[in-house]
Design brief:
This protein has a domain of 50 residues. Helix content is 87%, strand content 0%. It is built from twelve helices and no strands. The longest helix is centred in the C-terminal third of the chain and has 97 residues. The radius of gyration is 68 Å and the shape is elongated.
């Protein structure tokens, strides 16, 4: 039975849907319907955002405030029990008031545009103030975390330095070379020095802390005096200072950009200057080389001039000799042919005599060498014979000796 009722309801719904589609297709109002649905969705989204804003405002500000009741004509809320009974879907009060009180409730709880604008402005101011508080809180947290990171880095560096010193002075420097054991006296001395350094550092930090406390106290006194004299800055002054600070930050950014451009220009100029310096160095080396070459060329030219002058002198001398020879040649007279023939014959005879005498001289030298050898042999054999030594040599041998 239930299944038949469901199928019947589905059939009727599908039939109604088909009838509606046929009606809209016949009338051609699909585009208008979709546009109306889209506008309705956008309006509902805007109302949802507005309702969420009003909800936050009511959560922050009590709705039972008398000033708000008189200013915005907010009707008093019914008691919780009565409200629950009246809002129950099956109650009689809800059925009776559902039609008669709709207009009155709408008129009572409807806000004017000025009220909505004021609420939105107050919510905007609250969001801005909350954003400022959040920024201050985050900046304080960031400063705290940075201080903690700096402290952690400092402690890490100190621990690494202490570990390095311990390994250097104790692990490597305090071991006995023979037993390879750590000497206790060195360890005790190292720990005493370490504790002494730590105490000195603690004293310095205490002094620094006391100095900072004095500065803080002094600044708090100055701030208190300014508050008493009425020189405390108000929110407007802070806003003005923020604006000026923003302007100065923009100016600093501009100056930084200009400085960056000037640095880039200076870098380019330095590169060009280095290139010109390199070219100048090359030109200087070329100039020195050319100067050396010019000096060598000058020396060569001087030597060439000296040689030219000497050659000129020799040429003059040769010309004078040549002139004398030419004069002799001009003054020379050719002898007779018979005189030449006789002179030539005499020269030939003299050459033959010279050759014969040279041959005789060679023979005599050979004989002399032979006689010398015989004489030295005789002297060697008879040098101990006094009689032979007292006997004079024959005349031929004396002649040879004298020769």
């Amino acid at each position: 039975m239930a299944e038949s009722i469901e199928t019947a309801s589905v059939d009727t719904s599908t039939e109604n849907k088909d009838q509606c589609e046929d009606f809209f297709l016949k009338s051609g109002q699909f585009d208008e319907l979709f546009e109306h649905i889209r506008r309705t969705k956008e309006h509902n989204d805007a109302l949802a955002i507005e309702t969420e804003m009003f909800k936050k405002f009511l959560e922050r500000v009590s709705p039972l405030d008398a000033t708000l009741d008189t200013k915005w004509n907010i009707a008093p809320q019914p008691p919780p029990g009565q409200d629950q009974l009246s809002t129950m879907p099956g109650s009689r009060a809800s059925r009776k008031r559902s039609k008669s009180k709709v207009g009155a409730i709408d008129k009572t709880h409807k806000l004017s545009p000025e009220q909505k604008c004021e609420i939105s402005q107050r919510e905007t101011d609250e969001l801005k103030s909350e954003l400022v508080r959040l920024k201050e809180k985050t900046s304080k947290d960031i400063d705290l975390y940075r201080a903690m990171m700096d402290e952690a880095e400092e402690r890490e560096a100190e621990i690494n330095r202490a570990r390095y010193e311990f390994e250097r002075d104790i692990e490597k420097g305090a071991r006995n070379a023979r037993t390879n054991k750590v000497v206790g006296e060195k360890v005790r001395r190292y720990l005493e020095e370490y504790l002494k350094r730590r105490n000195e550092k603690i004293d310095k930090l205490k002094l620094k802390n006391s100095t900072l406390k004095g500065q803080k106290k002094k600044l708090s006194m100055q701030l208190k005096q300014k508050e008493e004299m009425g020189e405390v800055l108000h929110e407007v002054d802070f806003n003005q200072l923020k604006i000026e600070n923003q302007q100065y930050i923009e100016k600093i950014d501009e100056r930084n950009q200009d400085l960056l451009k000037l640095k880039m220009t200076a870098g380019n100029t330095l590169q060009v200057l280095n290139a010109y310096k390199h070219k100048l160095q090359e030109c200087t080396e070329l100039s020195k080389r050319l100067e050396q070459e010019a000096n060598s060329r000058k020396e060569l030219l001087e030597r060439i001039d000296c040689e030219t002058s000497q050659v000129e002198k020799e040429r003059n001398k040769a010309e004078s000799i040549n002139k004398k020879l030419k004069q002799q040649l001009d003054d020379y007279k050719v002898p007779e042919v018979m005189d030449y023939v006789t002179e030539k014959a005499d020269v030939y005879e003299l050459q033959k005599k010279v050759k014969s005498w040279e041959r005789k001289l060679e023979i005599a030298e050979m004989a002399l060498k032979i006689h010398k050898k015989d004489w030295t042999r005789l002297q060697m054999t008879n040098q101990n014979n006094p009689w032979y030594a007292s006997v004079p040599a024959p005349p031929a041998q004396q002649k040879v000796q004298t020769q």
